[in-house]
Inverse folding.
């Protein structure tokens, strides 16, 4: 099992002698092999949630479970992909991909076919003996993804993984991730500032309020994606679809207005858009 569950999560940091609430009363469940993206204003606690799932941070109250087990620290069942590629500049691409396997005790003889497989899967054939500085940003991020997939994790935790890429490379990587999700499905928690990226990639999009971060609304997109076969279309064609633009507009209005009520103009009539309201109280405006 690879579900992720945040149960009544709150997180407070001490800053300059004062307690600063970062997250408040978060209840969120990511199903096994579901792709969930989180969007929200800077400082709303998106990355803090992801770090808790990774075991790199811990809630002040509440608990985080992965596969039904409480998270007490990092584990081989979870892999993290950061915005900065976090590659070792002195290691070859082949050694970077195999590094996690080496750390878990996999022998060189066992590592080699796995590394070669993911060099091919990621379109990095012929670059195994190169070093990170010899590759473009997009290719370096492919190496980071290959390193994560090589570990065969149950859960992928992705924190703005394409944020440092140029626009065209970012689109290429989004299409690559969709392809990988079909061939090698994983449970994915994906943090992004891009509403377009969230709508294109995710089965559900979680919109968060500003600090202290709370879940404002959850939008179910999987049904629309399946019925219109988004995964079989180039990203630019998906972004031209009426349903995509309605969803994007609805999320933007939600984030900008902060009134907790979506405009009727954002409703997708066929198939119907299903949302899960996060709270009943009136919410503050997200600027």
């Amino acid at each position: 099992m690879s579900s992720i569950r945040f149960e009544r999560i709150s997180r407070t940091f001490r800053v300059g002698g004062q307690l600063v609430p970062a997250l408040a009363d978060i209840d969120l469940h990511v199903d096994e092999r579901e792709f969930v993206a989180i969007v929200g204003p800077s400082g709303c606690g998106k990355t803090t949630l992801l770090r808790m799932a990774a075991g790199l941070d811990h809630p002040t109250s509440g608990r985080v479970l992965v596969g039904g087990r409480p998270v007490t620290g990092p584990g081989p069942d979870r892999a993290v992909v950061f915005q900065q590629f976090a590659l070792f500049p002195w290691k070859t691409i082949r050694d970077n991909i195999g590094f996690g396997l080496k750390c878990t005790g996999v022998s060189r003889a066992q590592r080699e076919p796995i590394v070669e497989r993911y060099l091919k899967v990621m379109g990095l054939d012929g670059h195994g003996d190169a070093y990170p500085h010899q590759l473009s940003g997009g290719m370096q991020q492919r190496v980071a993804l290959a390193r994560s997939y090589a570990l065969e994790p149950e859960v992928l935790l992705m924190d703005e993984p394409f944020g440092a890429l140029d626009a065209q490379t970012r689109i290429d990587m989004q299409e690559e991730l969709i392809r990988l999700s079909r061939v090698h499905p994983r449970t994915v928690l994906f943090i992004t500032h891009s509403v377009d990226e969230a709508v294109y990639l995710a089965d559900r999009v979680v919109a968060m309020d500003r600090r202290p971060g709370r879940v404002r609304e959850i939008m179910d997109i999987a049904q629309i994606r399946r019925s219109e076969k988004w995964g079989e279309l180039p990203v630019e064609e998906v972004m031209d679809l009426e349903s995509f633009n309605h969803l994007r507009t609805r999320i933007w209005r939600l984030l900008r207005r902060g009134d907790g009520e979506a405009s009727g103009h954002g409703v997708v009539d066929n198939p119907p858009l299903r949302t899960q309201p996060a709270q009943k109280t009136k919410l503050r405006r997200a600027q």
Notes: DSSP finds nine helices and eleven strands in the chain.
